[in-house]
Amino acid sequence: QIIGKIYRKVNFLYGVEKLDVVTSVSKTSSNKIFNIYNSKNLDRNNILYNSIDLVRSGGSNILGKYNLRDKKFIYTISGVAPHKNLDFLIKSFLNFCNIDTSYILVVSGAFTSRFNGLYENILFTPFITDEEKSCLMEESEIFILASLAEGFGIPLIEGLYFNNKVLVSDINIFRELGKQYVSYFDPYDEDFLVKYC
């Protein structure tokens, strides 16, 4: 990823003045591009939002596989990169558990040895199918995204489709996509779950 970032940055720096059009997946990302490169030759209104392919059926086996049937759980999709804010979400969940111990936090996308066996009420799933992901979103009490930065945020759109309780960090891209259809929290307030629930 580091080499890829450098490659893209160098190509963009050398090529930006020769471009006629720059497209981006969101207004938020487009604004970042133009704030960094500030080229007057470019039109900043070329937004091509991501499309998604929603898969609904066939994933309910995951509830039995991880003993989640008839249990209250909060679901998130996250990585371990700092901007995904996973450590913050874990601390926030543990704060919430001081008040209500009946919930489990289920995390997909961050299955590493770093977390194995650390928390009894936090489940880190290995790779799951789209059907299983859809089931976890649909069956969760709350679907949460705690990111500090995103270019688009496809899981937010998926979450809105599968669950009417979507809670996301208050960042520009999530405001752009989620509008009034999701609830927002301060991604630095480790008591946000206590306040929300």
Describe the structure.
By secondary structure, the chain is of the alpha/beta class. It is 37% helix and 14% strand. It is built from 8 helices and 6 strands, in the order αααβαββαβαβαβα. It has helices spanning 2-15, 27-37, 61-65, 86-97, 130-139, 154-162, 172-178, 192-196, and strands spanning 72-77, 103-108, 122-125, 142-145, 166-169, 183-185. It has a 6-stranded parallel beta sheet, sandwiched between helices.
SSE inventory with pairings:
Blueprint: H1 2-15, H2 27-37, H3 61-65, E1 72-77, H4 86-97, E2 103-108, E3 122-125, H5 130-139, E4 142-145, H6 154-162, E5 166-169, H7 172-178, E6 183-185, H8 192-196
Parallel strand pairs: 1-2, 1-4, 2-3, 4-5, 5-6
Name some characteristics of this structure.
197 residues; alpha/beta; six-stranded parallel beta sheet; 8 helices; 6 strands; elongated
Profile the largest sheet: 6 strands, parallel
Biggest sheet strand order reads 3-2-1-4-5-6
Shape, principal axes of CA atoms: elongated
Order of helices and strands: HHHEHEEHEHEHEH
Beta fraction of the residues? 5-15%
Per DSSP, the total helix count is: 8
Gyration radius (Cα, Å) is 19 Å
End-to-end C-alpha gap = 37 Å
Poorly predicted segments? none
Helicity level, as a percent range?
25-40%
Number of strands: 6
Would you tell me the structural class of the helices and strands?
alpha/beta
Average residue pLDDT:
88
